[in-house]
Amino acid sequence: MNNKDYKKFFLIREDVLPESVVKTLKIKEALKQDPDMSIFEAVKQFDLSRSAFYKYRDTIFPVEEKMQTTKEFTLILYVNDVVGMLANVLNKLSTWHLSVLTIHQSIPMKNRATITLSLDATDTDLELDDVVDLLKEIDNVTKVELISMTI
């Protein structure tokens, strides 16, 4: 395989993206919402050049857009070592209609542990961001990170 044919993908937070990339995402959403809008009208509305829009339009997309066909992802939860912590997390996932594909809990060290979960969100209306936010609200969960996803 030629290295020029291989493209790496990255997950990156929106707040660190260049303004032109963020505007491209907004333009794509506006065009999706109003199919009668022309690209010229959309780039003018968001104050972006057409060349910048064309440069980025096929290279940037929201995670949820790529998760429409499959909704599998892996998260790592950083938790305080509390009796019943794993059971509490699993109960919450069940109420949110998330299916656990794989699970791993680390051995606690200094009263801290990690729980790695591969989840299938096919049977829920929750988006990835919603799941992360809900998990962060669980008592004794100190941090939640996305480590992989199927797209």
User: Beta-sheet strand percentage?
Assistant: 15-25%
Please describe the biggest sheet, giving its number of strands, its sense, and whether it closes into a barrel: 4 strands, antiparallel
Total number of helices: 6
Give Rg in angstroms: 19 Å
For the record, what CATH class of the largest domain applies?
Alpha Beta
Brief account:
The chain is of the alpha+beta class and 151 residues long. The protein has helices at residues 19-33, 39-45, 50-56, 63-66, 85-95, 128-136, and strands spanning 72-80, 99-105, 112-120, 141-149.
Report on this structure.
By secondary structure, this protein is α+β, with helices and mostly antiparallel strands. The protein folds into two domains: 14-61, no CATH class; 72-149, ACT domain (Alpha-Beta Plaits). It is built from six helices and four strands. It has helices spanning 19-33, 39-45, 50-56, 63-66, 85-95, 128-136, and strands at 72-80, 99-105, 112-120, 141-149. A four-stranded antiparallel beta sheet has the order 2-3-1-4, with helices on one face. A hairpin with a 6-residue loop joins strand 2 (99-105) and strand 3. The protein is elongated, with a radius of gyration of 19 Å. The two termini are 21 Å apart.
Task: Set out the fold topology.
Elements: H1 19-33, H2 39-45, H3 50-56, H4 63-66, E1 72-80, H5 85-95, E2 99-105, E3 112-120, H6 128-136, E4 141-149
Antiparallel strand pairs: 1-3, 1-4, 2-3
Helix pairs in contact: 1-2
